[in-house]
Amino acid sequence: MSFERPQPGADPADPRGALLHTPATMPPAAALPAQARTGETPPAPGTATPRGKGKDPASPPSDNTGPEHSQPAAVEPGTHRPRPAPEAVPDQPGGEQGRAQDGGGQERRSGQGAVPGRPTPMRRDGDRLRFVGAATRRIARGIDLDEIVMGLCRATVPTFSDAILVYLRDPLPVGDERPTGPLLLRLRRTDRIPAERDTEGNFSPALQPEPPEMTGLDAVGAEICEVRPGSALAEVLRGVRPVFTDAPAARAALPELLGDTGEFLVPGGQRAILAPLRGRRRVIGAALFLRRPERLAFEADDLLVAAQLATHSALGIDKAVLYGREAYIADELQRTMLPETLPRPTGVRLASRYLPAAETARVGGDWYDAIPLPGSRVALVVGDVMGHSMTSAAIMGQLRTTAQTLAGLDLPPQEVLHHLDEQAQRLGTDRMATCLYAVYDPVSHRITIANAGHPPPVLLHLGGRAEVLRVPPGAPIGVGGVDFEAVELDAPAGATLLLYTDGLVESRLRDVWTGIEQLREKLAATAQLTGPDHPPPLEALCDEVLDMLGPGDRDDDIALLAARFDGIAPSDVAYWFLEPEDAAPGRARRLARRALSRWGMEDLSDSVELLVSEVVTNAVRYASRPVTLRLLRTDVLRCEVGDDVPQLPRLRQARATDEGGRGLYLVNKMARRWGATRLSTGKVVWFELNQT
Question: Compositional bias (Gly residues) at which positions (predicted)?
Answer without folding.
Answer: 95-104
